[in-house]
Design a protein that fits this description.
- This protein has 283 residues and is of the alpha/beta class.
- It contains 13 helices and six strands.
- It has a six-stranded mixed β-sheet, with helices on both faces.
- β4 and β5 form a beta hairpin.
Length: 283
């Protein structure tokens, strides 16, 4: 099998975890290679996601690294042996790889949690709202590219609409609910859509109102995605140069704490529905 030219975020995450296990064991790449009877080049290729790893080799590496976390090892094996070709593959070569990586992460997620202060979360957006977001880009995208992005975003909703949906929590600031990303009718329809989805048992929508005292966290837009085990959770943060994936345990711990802090500052789901309903009537 040839080397991967562009490994997915999930493949890179597996590679990163294997490198972390080796480093925690105090071994150099050439020492790990000697234990497996392969070249150090092969270890480097595995640890950068350019080459896959078999279940046998992965379990052998874990044993040499003295990793005793069976659930974690099993989760890594599942990642290494996964051959899923999901719906997002139809967009390969047509959309940036980050779009495909996000859909793949969501497909395997055990939970999703978002914080948004200026936009409705992507999983809750209507077609009209998403189209307005993508059409506002500078430089402007060709109409065909806008429609591809809209269609991709709508297909991502499968994780909260399928028979066994992913548990989903979101905290939305009132600003995101009030900003008319489209026209008045589109804004009202968007709020109605959020209200409809918030009735589902697996979806929790919370609102931080404008009049909440002491709220200084408007910059804390984030997305948390649950892995098969907590060690494999990931987060996304928006920055000046685009979206960055976060997977270090210390950063993930801080972001989980921050999410709960923001959740505590928000209205509970029932009061949030009442609040959104009132905003929709005022729209």
């Amino acid at each position: 099998m040839g080397l991967r030219r562009e490994p997915t975020a999930r493949q890179v995450r597996l590679a990163t975890e294997l490198r972390r296990l080796r480093e925690a064991a105090g071994l150099k790449a050439r020492e790990a290679a000697a234990l497996l009877g392969v070249s150090s080049t092969q270890i480097n290729q595995i640890e950068y996601g350019h080459s896959g790893v078999s279940e046998k080799r992965l379990r052998s590496l874990a044993a040499h690294y003295a990793c005793m976390d069976d659930a974690f090892i099993d989760a890594l094996v599942a990642m290494a042996t996964d051959r899923t070709r999901g719906w997002w593959e139809e967009y390969r070569g047509h959309l940036p790889s980050a779009f495909l990586d996000l859909a793949e992460l969501e497909h395997h997620a055990t939970y999703r949690a978002d914080v948004e202060c200026l936009h409705i979360p992507g999983l809750l957006q209507t077609e009209e709202y998403a189209r307005a977001v993508f059409a506002y880009r500078v430089p402007a995208l060709p109409e065909g590219d806008v429609e591809l992005r809209v269609r991709h975003r709508m297909q991502r909703r499968v994780i909260i609409e399928r028979p066994e949906p992913v548990p989903y929590e979101t905290v939305i600031h009132e600003a995101a609910l009030r900003i008319r990303t489209g026209d008045r009718a589109a804004a009202r329809a968007q709020l109605a859509h959020v209200l409809d989805l918030s009735e589902a048992d697996h979806i929790s929508v919370r609102v931080i109102p404008f009049d909440r005292d002491g709220f200084a966290g408007a910059w804390n837009t984030m997305t948390l995605t649950g892995g098969a085990v907590p060690k494999l959770d990931s987060a996304q943060r928006d920055g000046p140069e685009g979206t960055a994936l976060v997977d270090s345990e210390s950063q993930l711990g801080a972001l989980r704490t921050l999410f709960r802090k923001l959740e505590a500052e928000s209205l509970d789901p029932e009061r949030s529905r009442d609040y959104i309903n009132r905003l929709a009537k005022e729209m």
